[in-house]
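The records we work with from here on pair a chain with its fold. Here is one such record, which you should read through line by line:
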Amino acid sequence: MAYTTDENDEYLVDYSSHQTILNLMAASQEADHDNREKAREAHLFCDKRDGQWEPYWWTNNVGKPRYTFDMVNPIVDQVTAEIEQADFDIKVSPMSGPASKDTAMIIDGLVRNIESMSRAKDIYINAGRGMATAGYDGWMISHKYADPQSFDQDLVIEPIANFIDRVWFDPASYLQDKSDAQYAFLLHAMSTQEYVKRYPEGSQASVSIDREGDAYYDKGQVIVVGQLFYVEQEASDLVLMSNGAVYTIDDDFEKIKDEMAAMGIEEVRRRKAFRTKVCSRFFDQTDWLEDKQDTIFDRVPIIPVYGNFKIVENKTIYWGVVEKLLDPQRVLNYSLSREIEEGALAPRAKYWMTLTQAAGHEDTLASLNTNSDPVQFYNPDPENPGAPQQQGGALVNPGLRTISESMRQIIGQTAGMFAASMGDNPGLQSGVAIERLQTKGDNGTIKYFRALEAAIASTGDILVKAIPKVYDAQRTVRLLYEDGSTEMKVLNEPVIDNQTGDIVTINDLTKGQYSVACRAGPSFRNKQQETIETIIEIAKVDPSIIGMAGDILLNAIPTSAATQIGERKRLQMMAQGLIPQSQMTEEEIAQQQAAAQAQGQGQQQDPAMVLAQAEMAKAQAEQMRAQVEVQRLQLDTAKIQLEAQKVQANLQAEQASLQLDTFNAQTNRMNTQIKAQEAGAKIQKETVQTEGIQIDNQMKVVSALNPFRGRI
C-alpha cells in the first residue's frame, strides 16, 4: 500500500494511487465479510420464496412437503410499523459564538424543508426496516443544483438501495454513525450503455462486491464502479470579521473582500487552522474514471443505521431481528411439514367386518363416506359377535407436535414479542393490562428506535454544518415549521443600519455554532389530533385543565358541532374570567368593554343595543387601529425623509469641505508665487544697488584723475 508523509513526517494514505484504493476497499470488505453474509442471509430469509429453508434440506427433499409457516416477517412488520407510526424530528439549538434563537429557527425550518423535499420520512422508514431485518442500512446526503437553469444549489437526502452490497466504511472507525471514518466506498451498478456513455475510455471492468454467490439469476447485466469518499486535511488561515462571520482565506474570500470593506466590514483577527474536507473520486477495477472532486462536507456524507451496534475485539458487529430467529423458524417449517406428510401418508380409519356382516349391504357400505343415510345395516355373524368396528387412521408422531409448539414459543421469546404484548390475549379484559403488556413488549424493540434516532441526529449535524456553505448567497428559501406551516425567508440580505449607517447582513447562517438533537414521538395526522390527545393526557393528571382549555379542545375537533360547542364554551369561560385579555380577539375585547360600560351605568339594556354598542366599539377600534397605522406610515415616511435629508446634508458638507480644500490649495499656490516674485525683486534691487555702487566708485576714480589730465 502506498503512503506519503506530511510536514510532520506522519504517514498518510496516498489516495491518488489506484492500487492503494483497491487494497483499502479489499481490506474494508474483508473486515466486515462475516457480518455482511449474515445480513444477506437475513434478507433472503425474509424475501426469497424458499429462503426460510436451509439449501441442503430444500434440495434433498424434492417431492416431499416443504411448506413455509412464516412467523418472522410479522415480527419485522411489527417493529417497522412502530417506526412508521413515530415522528423523528430534528431540533436545532444555538450552542456557542454569536448563535441566536432566530437563526436556529431558520436553520431548523430549512432542515425540515430539506427533509420534506427529499421525502426523508420514507427514506428513514425503509432504512429502519432494513436495519430491523439485517442490522445494517442507511442513506446519504448530496448537494445538487436546485434548477437546471439556476446556479443555486440545494442539499438533498438520498436513499441507497441495496446498502449491504454497496457501502463499505473504514474498518478503523468505531463510532456508531461512522463520523470518524477517514474513507468509505459507495458502489454503483450501471448498465453497459450508461457506462460507455459516461466513460468511453473505460475498461468496463467491475470492482469486487465481496459476495460469495447470487441468490437470483434472472437479472440484468451491469458494470459495478466504485466511488471513493475520503477525508483530506489542509492548513488554512481563518479570519474573523467585524460582523462576527468567520471565513477561510482563499480565492472566494479574496473576491468578496473589497465588497465587505465597502460595507464597513473589517478584519478583526486571523489564525492558523486545519480544515477538513471530503473529496470524491470514481474508479473501476482497472483505473480512475474521473478526477478528484471536492465536496462541501467535512465528514463522509453517508449515514449508516446499525441494529445492536457493538465493538468487540476492535471489530464492529451488528445484527437485526431475523438473525436470532433463523434456526427456530427453520425447525418449525420442518416439523410442521413432517406432521403434514405423516398425516397425509397415514391410512384412513376404516370399518372392519366379516363377509357375513357385509352380505347384501355392499352398495351402502361402498358409499359410507358420502351417503346421508341415517342407518347402516349389517348381518349378525355368530363367529364374530358385535357390530363392525372402525380401526386405523392417522397417527402423527407426537414428538413433532411438541417440537412445533416449542419453536413457536422460542420465536416469540427470542424476538421479545409475546401474544399478550402484541394485544392478542382474549383472557385479559382490561385494556390497561393489555397496554402494559404491549409496553413491556416494546422493551425488545426500543433499541431499533434509538439506532434510527442516532442516525437521523447525525444527518441533522451534517446538514447544519453544510447549510452555510450551500446557502451562502442572497436567495429566498422556504422554511417548514413543526406545525406544518411554511414561510419564505430571504437569506444573507444586506441592509443599512439607520443608526450607524453600516451595512449589516440579515439572516447570515455562518454566524455561531449550533447543536442538533433528534427526538422520536408518536406520529399524528395533523396538529389538531396532537392537540386533542395532548390535552386529554394532561387532563388525566389535572382535570382542571378541561375547565381552563375546554374551548381549545373543542375547537381542535374538526366538526361543525364541536366548533359551535367550543364557541359557547368560550363565552362561558369569558364570563368566568378564565381567558386572559392577551388571548382575546379585538371583537371579544370590544364586547367586554361594552358589557363593562353597560354594567357601570347600572341599566338593563336591550341585548340588541348591547350588540350594537359592541359593533360600534369594534368599528371605533378598527378606526383607531387604522389611524395608528397611518401615523406609523407617516412616521416611517418622515424617518425616510429625515434620513434622505441627512444624506443630502452630508453630501453638501463633503462638497463644501472639498471646495474649501480647493480654495486653500489655490491660496497657498498664489502665496508661493508672490513670495517667489518678492524674492526675485529683492535680488534685482540688490543687483542694481551693487551696480550703482560700482558706477559711483568709477566716477570717483575719474574725478580723481581729472586734475592731472592737462599735465599728462
DSSP finds 20 helices and 21 strands in the chain.
